[in-house]
Specification:
Blueprint (H helix, E strand, L loop, with lengths): L1 E6 L10 H9 E9 L1 H4 L6 H20 L5 E4 L2 H12 L3 E5 L5 H16 L3 E5 L11 H13 L40 H14 L1 H7 L12 H5 L5 H10 L6 H26 L10 H5 L6 H8 L6 H13 L7 H14 L4 H11 L5 H11 L18 H7 L4 H6 L27 H20 L49 H8 L11 H6 L5 H7 L2
Parallel strand pairs: 1-2, 1-4, 2-3, 4-5
Bound molecules: flavin-adenine dinucleotide.
The site of flavin-adenine dinucleotide has 28 residues, from helix 9, helix 11, helix 15 and helix 17.
């Protein structure tokens, strides 16, 4: 009987999983997950996310059990573990999805490729839905994405036969993986839980989602992000479930569905950008922003991390992130206000912020997190000059995101006695710090700086010469702050799989296609246009600022 090893990574599900389905049709399967120290000890790895992942693995094992199989767990470097497992099980080779989340994973997969080839062993890579190897312009990708989402889901295999003699390690606990819990509540990690979340959203929240997205206290979003990060549910299944759901002819629900599907597409789009340009994990999109350098002040960084800036909306977000890992309670808008404060107003390198987020977010996903950070810092979509988004963290933030002050009062109880209209700039209060910066001054300094930096490339037809290149040194950001396993990064300019775009070899058409990934698109109104539409109802105005 044929035997195939199916290597799970961030695709911890049995449904809509092509490698598993095809392997099961070939014969026996060895479904394996490898606890990889390089990832467990990456500076951006957070304990809460590892705890969630362990729960996903527990449920994946149970789901495989229902199909007659089980999950085989191993620990070590996959480049050593997998060839050994192939030999031990006499499997013909490995089926797996490609993964473009991190440079580390792409270095590992290139090494694995080489080691397997040297031993005449095979690996077959599958493209995850919504991932493309070739460069295409963003509008075409967007169109293709909808076609891809409409493809039938791959069914779960009817049976998974795992050879009886293949043994698995025990599922480790968090301490055995080198982490300890920091009191963040961990949601259940399973396909069933993700499906329940989505159903609950459709039944109870869809009529308000679009309208209350900016209010963290409304907790109106789906809560799917950690599940999507680990691939416990496929984005395609989410999209099809939403499209099938009854909208009851309600325009509000239709609008919410549309908005949610767009957001799912944005997430995939960020991964695709990383596929083209893995350097985005370590660098700003345009070289000039890193060449000019950033400010850094450890005391201010600490104040920002611990919610001691004197700006209640920022401090509430800071404390919420540390206490909850952001799950459901730290929505897009509060993440954006919080991040903009560090990079724009304090002028600090966005990578310090992205690092802190990744160490705490349960849904921490490198392409989304790093790209969002870079976007909020104004160093990505800036060919369009209007795209300077510096959030005002004072009363404007309270009025637009927390008009009743519920979020702030929950996380900054020192201010619970104040009315909402004082929460933007609270009067001196015992136990609560004075503001650590002057908003107007710092904002205008940043706007000036960004405009000067952008001048360098803003009027060029071809921006590719100005983009940051893949660095030779791939050491992750943050290794000097947190003990990490980084032997893999010792090689200069390592090979990557999938390979990155070679920016210096693009033809004119490719340069122009690439540019479309980094400009604002038609369906996103520029701040100027939003102002012109100010005759809209307050609800509509507020939403356009998302
Ligand atoms: C600085 C910053 C860092 C962020 N870091 C992450 C991160 O590490 N992981 C992460 O999943 N999201 C991140 N986001 C995006 C967004 O805040 C979260 O996706 C959302 O809060 C997750 O909750 P949800 O699944 O309930 O959201 P829902 O609104 O229900 O969205 C469903 C899914 O759509 C996708 N999505 C939603 N909003 C966005 C967005 N703005 N950009 C890209 N994809 C989106 C996500 O996959 C999300 O799970 C970040 C945003 C900012 C501003």
């Amino acid at each position: 009987m044929n035997r195939t090893l199916v290597w799970f990574r961030r695709d911890l599900r049995i449904y809509d999983h092509e490698p598993l389905y095809r392997a099961a049709r070939r014969g026996a399967v060895i479904p394996v997950f490898v606890f990889d120290r390089a990832l467990l000890k990456h500076p951006e790895t957070g304990a809460a996310r590892v705890a969630f992942m362990v729960d996903c693995l527990r449920h994946l094992h149970q789901d495989l059990r229902h199909l007659g199989g089980r999950l085989i767990l191993r620990s070590g470097n996959p480049v050593d573990v997998l060839p050994r497992l192939i030999r031990e099980t006499q499997a013909e080779g490995i089926y797996s999805y490609t993964d473009c989340e991190r440079i580390y994973g792409r270095v590992r997969d290139a090494n694995l490729h080489r080691v397997l080839a040297a031993q005449q062993m095979k690996i077959r890579w599958f493209e995850p839905p919504a991932s493309r190897s070739e460069l295409m312009a963003y509008p075409r990708y967007r169109q293709w994405w909808y076609q891809e989402m409409a493809m039938p889901l791959v069914p779960a295999p009817s049976w998974v036969e795992v050879p009886a003699e293949v043994v698995s390690d025990e599922l480790p606990d968090l301490e055995q993986l080198g982490h300890s819990l920091d009191d963040k509540p961990i949601p259940i990690g399973s396909t069933q839980a993700a499906r329940r979340q989505l159903q609950q959203f459709l039944a109870e929240k869809a009529d308000r989602y679009y309208w209350q997205l900016s209010y963290p206290s409304a907790e109106i979003t789906t809560g799917l992000s950690p599940h999507i990060k680990f691939g416990v549910i496929s984005v395609r299944e989410c999209v099809q479930t939403i499209q099938r759901a009854d909208d009851r002819g309600d325009r509000r629900i239709q609008r919410s569905y549309h908005q949610l599907i767009s957001r799912l597409r944005w997430g995939n789009g960020f991964t695709q950008r990383f596929r083209y340009l893995p350097q985005l994990e370590l660098r700003s999109l345009y070289k000039i922003f890193d060449d000019d350098g950033w400010d850094f002040d450890e005391d201010l960084y600490q104040a920002w991390q611990h919610g001691q800036t004197g700006f209640p909306m920022v401090d509430a977000a800071a404390r919420c992130l540390q206490a909850t890992g952001g799950y459901l309670s730290l929505n897009f808008r509060s993440r954006a206000i919080y991040s903009s404060f560090l990079s724009n107003l304090l002028g600090m390198d966005w990578r310090y912020g992205a690092l802190h987020f990744m160490r705490h977010l349960i849904d921490g996903d490198c392409p989304i997190d790093h790209y969002q950070w870079a976007m909020q810092s104004g160093v990505t979509h800036c060919v369009d000059k209007t795209w300077t988004r510096i959030y005002n963290p004072q009363q404007v933030a309270v009025d637009r995101c927390d008009p009743e002050g519920l979020f702030i009062k929950h996380w900054v109880p020192e201010l619970a006695h104040l009315p909402p209209e004082q929460l933007g700039t609270p009067p001196p209060t015992k136990g609560y710090p004075e503001p650590i910066l002057d908003y107007r001054q710092t904002r205008s300094r940043r706007v000036q700086q960004l405009e000067q930096q952008r001048e360098k490339f803003l009027h060029s037809d071809n921006v590719v010469p100005y983009l940051g290149r893949m660095p030779k040194n791939v050491m992750p950001f943050g290794v000097e702050r947190y003990p990490s396993e980084t032997d893999w990064a010792a090689t200069e300019a390592p090979n990557l799989f999938p390979t990155a775009l070679e920016l210096d070899n693009l033809d004119a058409q490719q340069c122009s296609d690439l540019r479309t990934w980094f400009v604002a698109h038609g369906n996103i109104a520029s701040p100027k246009k939003r102002k012109q539409k100010s005759s809209d109802s307050p609800d509509l105005q507020q939403l356009r600022l998302l």
